[in-house]
Each structure stands twice: as structure tokens, then as C-alpha cells.
Amino acid sequence: MIACALAFSTSAQAGTVEVPEGCDAFLTVQQKNCGVSHYWRCEKAPEGTVWEVHYDVEGVYSLSVYDREFQWLDSQYYRDGTREHLVGDAPDPASMSELLESGSDSYAFVIREDGPEGSRDVVHQGYDSLTGRTVEIDGVSLLETEFASTAMDAVSGEEIFAVAGNQYVLVEERLFFLGPDSFLQDGEEMSNDFSPVRFIRPGEAGFTDMTPLYGCDASEEILFRPQLPEAAE
Length: 233
Prior knowledge:
It is built from 1 helix and 15 strands; from the N terminus they run ββββββββαβββββββ. By secondary structure, the chain is mainly beta. A hairpin with a 4-residue loop joins strand 1 and strand 2.
């Protein structure tokens, strides 16, 4: 297990993300619905491991780490202090390699949630499939996928939520990005679209900026924390 507990900080004056020593930021993605994510890799981590910090209108939202297959390993949610991490060896691990080679990938894995209301294990089961379409966003070519996923309580088997829609794959960086989807929980359905809008590389204006730019209500005050707490080990 690779913890996402590497210390990193934000510069309140500059409004930018500062990644940990020994790590290199390589991409900033501005998204629809008032979000921005920053990605980095670290020299001492296994090859292909990538970290993502996400900001929304209220500031830092989450810090996550994925392996080379873009399998979800660990996440810290700063709003309520919840931690989620992969438990054991997945019976059917998510595999970007399988998706790119065969056009489809199924998965089933268990995530342990530790939060204010206690702990529980959640089974995530679903699939990703390439639609055959290539989508260009901000000059970047992305492979479109369709997906469906269900989260179930590992003990009771009760469905917690289900989500289906489209996502995008940036092949050269082995990254997934959210797209339009439909989220169903407790009998209520919600439509979302967190598709990328801009891809910003090192040296370009806006790289590592914390301020989300697209889909934000002009009346909202966008807040940022000057220092992020470290995630618990």
C-alpha cells in the first residue's frame, strides 16, 4: 500500500500548489463544475504511481494516489476527514492495460472507508469500455469510455450508490478523467459533468494554480487553505 501522506503545501500568496521534495508536477487540469486537479509523480515511488490533489470552490477537497494501472489505492478527503484505501488484493483489479489492449476492463475491489461515523468496507464493481471515439479537448486527444459502477456494503450487500456515464483516457500519461455521468443514491438520481476544459503543462500560464475557473458561480467566494494537513498514516 502506498500512503498518500506525503506532505505538500499550498502557497496562499502565490495561489499555487507546491509538491513534495523529490516529486515533479506534470499536469494541471481545469474542469467543468468549478474544479481543478494537479498531478505529480515521485522518484522514490513505484514506476507509474501518480498523485492527484483536487480543489473545488471551498478549497482543497481531496488527495488521491493511483498505481500504473490507475487503480485507486488511497484517498484523503479534507472536508470531513474521511480516508479511503484499497483493502488487500482485489479479486479483479482495475487495469488500464487491459482496457487499452482489449477495449474493455471489468473490476471488483474493496475499499475501506474510515470517517467520522466509523469504518466500513465497500465493494466497488463495474466495467470500463472504449467507445471507439477519440475526443479532442483543448488540443489534447482523449479516448472516450463508457462505464458503469456499483458500490455495495461488503457485509450486508446493500447498494450504496450506482454511477454510469462516460470518462476519458489520456493514454500517454495513463490517466482517467471524469466526464458526464448519472449518479443514483437512495432513489435519487443526479447528473454531473466534470469533464476537462483545459490541460496545462509546466511553464504554461495557470500551471499548479489552485483557483478553479469554469462553472463557478460568480457570487461564490473561492476559499483556500494556506497549509494542508498531512494525511494520517
